[in-house]
Amino acid sequence: MNTRVVRAACPHDCPDTCAMLVTVTDGVATAIRGDPDHPNTAGVLCTKVSRYLERTYHPDRILHPLKRIGPKGRGQFAQISWDEALDTIADRLQSIAKRDARAILPYSFAGTMGAVQGESMAMRFFNRIGASQLDRTICSSAGGAGIRYSIGAKMGTDTEQFEHARLILIWGGNPIASNLHFWMRAQEARRKGAVLVAIDPYRSLTAEKCQHHIAPLPGTDAALALGIMHVLVRDDLLDHDYIDRYTLGFAQLSERVADWTPARTAATCGIEAELVEWLARLYGETAGRGEAVAIRVNYGLQRVRGGGMAVRNIACLPALVGAWRHAAGGVLLSSGDSFPRRGDWLERPDLYRADAMRPPRTINMSTIGDDLVRAASHDFGPAIEAVVVYNANPVAVAPESARVAQGFARDDLFTVVLEHFRTDTVDYADIVLPATTQLEHIDVHATYGHQYIVANNPAIAPLGEAKPNSEIFRLLAQRMGFDEPCFADSDDELAAQAFEAGHAHTKNYDWSAVRQQGWYKLDVPPAPFAAGGFPTPSGKCEFYSERMLQDGLDPLPSYIPPYESVVSAPALARQYPLAMISPPQRNFLNTTFVNVQSLRDTEGEPHLELHSEDAAARGIVDGDRVRAWNARGEMLARARVTDRPRPGLVVALSIWWKKLAADRKNANELTHQRLTDMGRAPAFYDVLVQVEKVSDP
Length: 697
Ligand code: SF4
Hints:
Radius of gyration: 25 Å
Number of helices: 26
Shape: globular
Bound molecules: iron/sulfur cluster
Number of strands: 27
C-alpha cells in the first residue's frame, strides 16, 4: 500500500481557511484532518469539512459534461463529450461577442476562495472576450466599504491575539457556526478571565455561551455604536492622547453623538437604556484600566440598508479608547486587505479592449434577478444573452429568488455552469461542466480571518472527467482562438505569482517553500495601529471622512434605518409584522454541504424559529408546519418555538437548496434586491414577513 499525507487548504467561504492534512492510500483519499501544527487551525476542522471525503466521493458528483434535454429548471441532461461541450460554448459565445460581448456575463463568488480556481484564468478569459464585469457584492462589500472609510483597510486585530483580550464584543456573528477558530481563542480568553459580550438579535449558539447577550433590533447596530460613543464622550472614558495624535474629526464626532443619549439609543435599538450605559462603561472602563478590549464584528449586521454605516461606526470605537495600543485590542472585520494579492497579474484587466461604441458595463450580482429580465436599453446596454456560472449558486443564493429563477428560465438565455453537483442553478443550465474539488487541483489561499497564506496541493486525481476551473477556461480560450501567452500559464505558475513576494507583509514569501510547508504567516506587526499609520487618506482613524462626503454620504458616523421595519413602517409592518433574518445554519456553508446526507440529516428540513410570544399569538406550537410570506413570495418550514429570537423576529437558518425542500423554496423567496447604503450589497436581513400555521400535507 502506498500511503502519503498531502498538505491542503479548506477552500470554503469561511474566515478560518484551515490548513488540512489529507491521507491518500493508493490514490484514494482516506482521511482528512486539521493540521495540528498550523497555529490557527490547531488540528481542528469544523463538522462540515470533517465530512469533505463524503462530499468528494458523493455518488451525485457531476463527472462528465452534460447538455440540457428538457425544459429549463427541470434538470434533465444527457452526457456529452468535452469536445462537444467546449465547441458548443465557444460557438455560442463567439456569435454573441460578434454583436456585443457585453451580453456575456460571468457569475461567480466564493464557492472556492482560491486564487487559482477563483478569478485568475476565468477573468483573463472574460476580460479578453470583453464581457460585462461582475460587481461581486453579495456577501461583504457593505461592511468592507464601511471599515475602509474609518480605518482605511479590511485589516485589524490578529485572531491569534484575541485570547489575550480582557473584553471581547462579538458583534453580529455566530462564530461557533462560521468562525470556529476565533471562537476557540475567545474561549481561551474567557478561561483567562475575559468578559465576552454577544450583540445579536438572535441568541445564537455563540450568544448562549457568552456571559452577556444584548439583542438589538435588526438593522440598528449603527445606533448602538453611536450610543456607546455618546457615553464614552459624556463620561470622558477616552484616550485623549491617542485621539489627538491618531484620529481625525473628534470635535465633529462629539457634536454628532451628543444627541445619541442612552434613552434615544435604547428606543431605536429596542433595548433598555441601562444596557447601553452598562456596555459603554464596560468598554471604556476596561480600556481605561490599560486592558485590551477587542471587537470581532462580523458580516451579519451589514446585511441591512445601513449596514456599511454600522460597520463604519463600530470601527471608530477602538480609536476613542486607545484600544489599538494593544496587540489584543482593536477590531477585526476581515484580514483580507493584509494580503498583497496580484489581482492585475492574475486577472489581466489589460486584456479588455475598450470600445467607444460599447463602453465597459458592470452588472451587480445582487440584482441579477432584475438584470436577467431587463431589456436592452441605452442606459443598460444589451440584454444579457449568456451567463457562465462558476463557484456560485445564484438560483438559491441571490435575493428575491423567484425573480432570479424567472431570469434563468428564459429560453433565449444561454447558461453554462461549472459545478460539482446538480444544484438549483445547474437545473437551468444549457451546458454543465464537471469541476474538480479542492482535493483534485492545486490552489493557494488568502483568507479573511487570519494572517496566513495557505497552500493546497492536489491529493488525488480528478474524478471522472472533472477538470479544474482554470483548465476549463484555458481550453475555452484555445477554442476561441485567444493566443496571448498568459492563457498557457499553468496552475502552478498562477499559484506561484498570486501574491507579491518581497512586499512588507511577504518579506520571505516563496511559493515553492510554501507548497512544502503548507502556509506562510504574513509579516504584519502585532499591534498595527498602535502608533496610528492607518491606511486612510489622512493616515488617521477618520471619524470625519472627506471621502464619504465626496461619495455622497454623511461624512460622520450616523444611523440609517432599515428599509422594511422602519422606513416602510407602519404600513408594511401591519401586513408583515415580523422581521426575518437568515443566518448560516451550522452544518451548511452557504449552499455547500446541503446535499451531504449526514449533515442534512441533522436538520432534516427547513425550520423557522419564532419567539414563544409570536408563536402563541398565531396559535403555533413547536413542530407545526408554518408558512412565511410577504409580497415577494412564501416558504414553508417547520416551526421551532423558543425564546432565542427576540420577540418580533423570526430566524430561518440557511441556505437550503430549494429542490431539497418540500415546497422547493428557501428563505430567499422573501428577500429583496434593494441595496445597502454603501458597497452596493443586498440587504438580506432587512425583511418583514408574516407567519401562519398550515396543515401538514
Ligand atoms: S469551513 Fe472554515 S472552519 Fe470549516 S474547515 Fe473550512 S476553514 Fe475550517
